[in-house]
Structure formats: C-alpha cells, structure tokens
Amino acid sequence: MRSDATTRQLVLVDGRSGAGKSEWVAQSDEYAGFVVVSLDDLYPGWDGLDAGHIRAYEQLVLPWSRGERARVATWDWGQGALGPVIEIDPEASVVIEGCGALSILTAPYATHRYWIEADIEVRKRRALERDGELFAPYWTRWALQEDRFYSTHRSWELADSVVRT
Predict the structure, then answer these.
(1) Which of 3, 21, 25, 91 is the most buried (most CB within 10 A)?
(2) Residue 5: what pLDDT?
(3) What CA–CA distance (Å, rounded) separates 108 from 164?
(4) What share of the chain is helix, strand, coil (3-state, %, to 5)?
(5) pLDDT of 122 over the 50 cut
(6) Residue 17: Cβ within 10 Å count
(7) pLDDT tens for residues 53-89?
(8) How many CB atoms within 10 Å of residue 19?
(9) Which residues is 76 bridged to in the sheet?
(10) What is the C-alpha to C-alpha distance for residues 81 and 21, in angstroms, rounded to an integer?
(11) Residue whose C-alpha is closest to residue 15's, from 91, 128, 108, 97
C-alpha cells in the first residue's frame, strides 16, 4: 500500500542490534515513499536506548498520531550533542526502525508492527561489519540495555509479523 493523505501509516520495525532492521526496510518496496526514521539517529549515546525510545514516542509518535507536525532533534555522535531536527509532516506515512521502536507505548499507534530476528552470531558479525571497531567495545553494554528493554516490553509479542533474516 502506498502512502497518501487518506492512508497514512505508522510502521514500527524492531529487533536486536544487527538483526537486519535497516536493511529490511531499505529493501522493502512496500515502504517506498515513507519517511524513514532510524532510532540510531535519536539515541543519545551508547547508553541511550531507553531515552531514544522515549524521544521517538513523545516527539514523533504522539504528535504525528494527533495530526500534528512531529519534530525531534537527531543525535550527533561525533559531537556527543543534539544535532539537526527531523520534521515529519502529519500527512506523511512513517517507518520508525531500530531497537526500541516497538513497545507497549508505541504499538497502539502503529498500523504495522514487525519484529526482525537473527541468530546472535549473525547479528554480532553484521553489527561489527556495519559499525566497525567503533561498536566492538559497546556490544555487551548495548545488549544489556536490549535485555532490560525487551524484558519489559516483549516487543516480539506485540508484532504482527516476525521476520527472520
């Protein structure tokens, strides 16, 4: 289904680091023309999974769901500070992808909910290939945040579809 003013959609794509969320969205013709927001652009640093999730919920999902323009500052990883603001027109269809996209808070607003999964060895290899040695020292630190987040939200249970990559 293509995006237009009468069929605007909110698609949430979640899964652990390296599961293939970004690639899955990028390769999906179904979401061509949607505004894609990666939570990687919103997490305020390596300890920011929960904060990135809340920022997406409060500053993107809620205003968009009320028919308002959504605005959220990105995170400048190089500077360790807030960066440029993403603005989303209230008539746009949106995909939010990343760890923490699908939660007990965000799920009720979504038209489609996906959980993307892959074996841990595959996920780690992908993450390190994608982010290089920059991510290596943070793999365990980030995984512990995922464990905590997913033990609370059980995001895979909120999904309409589970996609194995």
Answers:
(1) 21
(2) 44
(3) 23
(4) 40, 25, 35
(5) yes
(6) 23
(7) 999 999 999 999 999 999 999 999 999 999 999 999 9
(8) 25
(9) 81
(10) 25
(11) 97
CA 63 from chain center: how many Å?
A: 17
Within 10 angstroms of residue 113's Cβ, the number of other Cβ atoms is 22
Region 136-157: mean pLDDT is 94
10-164 CATH pick, 3.40.50.300, 3.40.720.10, 3.30.1240.10, 3.40.50.1950? 3.40.50.300
Which amino acid type is present at position 130? R
Other beta carbons within 10 angstroms of residue 6's beta carbon come to 6
Query: Do residues 91 and 69 make contact, with C-beta atoms less than 8 angstroms apart?
Result: no
Residue with tokens 């365990």: 140
* Residue 30: per-residue pLDDT: 93
Q: Helices 139-153 and 120-131: crossing angle, nearest 10°?
A: 130
CB 101, CB 14: distance < 8 Å:
yes
Does the model's pTM come out above 0.85? yes
Contact assessment for residue 106 and residue 56, using Cβ atoms and an 8 Å cutoff: yes
Distances (CA, A) of 39 to 5, 72, 77, 100: 24, 11, 13, 8
